[in-house]
Amino acid sequence: xxxxxxxxxxxxxxxxxxxxxxxxxxxxxxxxxxxxxxxxxxxxxxxxxxxxxxxxxxxxxxxxxxxxxxxxxxxxxxxxxxxxxxxxxxxxxxxxxxxxxxxxxxxxxxxxxxxxxxxxxxxxxxxxxxxxxxxxxxxxxxxxxxxxxxxxxxxxxxxxxxxxxxxxxxxxxxxxxxxxxxxxxxxxxxxxxxxxxxxxxxxxxxxxxxxxxxxxxxxxxxxxxxxxxxxxxxxxxxxxxxxxxxxxxxxxx
Length: 253
Description:
- By secondary structure, this protein is an alpha/beta fold.
- The protein has 2 domains: 3-174, Alpha-Beta Complex (Spore Coat Polysaccharide Biosynthesis Protein SpsA, Chain A); 197-252, no CATH class.
- It is built from 9 helices and 10 strands.
- The strands form 2 sheets. Strands 3-2-1-4-7-6-8 form a 7-stranded mixed β-sheet, sandwiched between helices. It has a 3-stranded mixed β-sheet with strand order 5-10-9.
């Protein structure tokens, strides 16, 4: 089995969910080898040391310059120089082997992605999970062309949507279950993506997330594990109820 090249991007503020994500990937892998490419968005030497403590995988840090920190989703194939890459946002847990996703035939398609669940946005796909045909991106000069047309009022996702047109391979929804209180479509997601503001690790919001327990399943296996999860969740719910009470009170006044 060839090595799966997995790109992650986070800074010190997201080190905890980043560690949880890496834990979930390694716990659920089959016979594949994992090579983590960490796009350093601002990691301390202490947090880098913590990441290097992972075993049964290869880890490479990519220190980004100012331009790369802004446009890294466009420049990803130039930063991580390999034929294909799986990119995952840091607010994700992986519940299954990535082997099937990695072996997806992209042919002439630039990217394998899941259709965008947020209908308020104009672009077709959610870029939190991407199987990138890096070789074709470079052959067709996607990074250069994207940078040329990028406008101040456009996001990297919008620009890539324009360039890719019909060369997008849409994946099964299980590969990017965009988790929110309203989304319960997929019963057995392979990748849970905690989009929006209801992050499972944030007190006062986590209890609203229907997949909070899935996050804690892997959180318990890290150095960030709580001594008492029931107590943490009780505080979470208490803060949530206080927030709702204040909101209702303001509306009534």
